[in-house]
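Q&A log
Question type: sequence-to-structure
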Amino acid sequence: MSAILISREDPAGYQLGHILRVNDSTEKDHETLNFLKFVRPGGGFVPKFPIFGKIEVNGEKEHPLYTFLKVSCPFVNPVIGDQTRLHWSPLKVSDVRWNFEKFLVDLNGRPYKRYDLATPFDVIEDDILMLQHQKSYV
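Response status: OK
Response body:
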């Protein structure tokens, strides 16, 4: 599984990230804008925020950022899925299952929580609001 990290700053100054799954492992970083503009989401979409390069989120070549996030936040779903459809190795229970799985990181760069793809956004929003009003947490 590969990912494109997209970051944008919300009105409160937080960096919000989103991961887009890239099925074509041959796509190069310089092709990302065309992928977004013409394929997904398509329709001439041009982001107005910084886009980072494509990285591996699972497997032997996973990026250290995802190693750190996955060690810092426990997995949210013990079911790995159909292993014949997974394209990375080795498989670990902590692997990111799908492109809509999310990690919330506080302003100090500390991972706070990991969310399953089925988590309603209002739950995540409540956690974001709580972190905005809390200077630190244990």
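Response note: The longest helix spans residues 121-133.
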